[in-house]
Design brief:
It comes from Pseudoxanthomonas putridarboris. This protein is α+β, with helices and mostly antiparallel strands and 131 residues long. Helices cover 31% and strands 27% of the residues. It is built from four helices and six strands; from the N terminus they run ααββββββαα.
Length: 131
């Protein structure tokens, strides 16, 4: 069992979350908490003006805050490289592949984050293995 991680108090993350204009606030907060609870090794920072998550300094997921639904962009870091096929077991078809090195998870509400957590957290753990 993974230990529950304490939410970061990094100034950049805290400042972003305190911004009154933060779109999708309830979804961002629910998703952030669930991502950090996925694995104790996950850290966070602000990348591309949005919450971003990393393991050992290598970023693998960044929230996309614009649009009607909150999207979590899964990527393999700054360098473009292809994900080995088939690398990710996604039995519920949650991933929307946007290239060989990135995919999206989309959430319509905070309830959606929580309701689908048992399906997307294993996908996230698999993705982290390739960073």
């Amino acid at each position: 069992m993974v230990a529950k991680k304490t939410l970061s108090t990094a100034p950049d993350v805290a400042a972003l979350l305190a911004d009154a204009a933060l779109p999708h606030r309830s979804i961002v907060l629910a998703l952030r908490e669930a991502i950090l609870a996925t694995d104790a090794a996950i850290g966070e920072a602000v990348k591309w003006n949005a919450p971003s998550f990393h393991v050992g300094g290598a970023h693998f997921a960044t929230m996309h805050l614009r649009g009607t639904r909150l999207q979590l962009v899964l990527h393999l870091g700054a360098r473009k490289r292809a994900m080995p096929k088939p690398a990710i077991d996604d039995p519920q078809g949650l991933l929307d592949w946007r290239g060989e090195d990135r995919a999206l998870l989309a959430f319509a509400s905070a309830d959606d984050v929580i309701a689908t957590r048992d399906a997307w957290q294993p996908v996230l753990r698999q993705w982290m293995a390739y960073v």
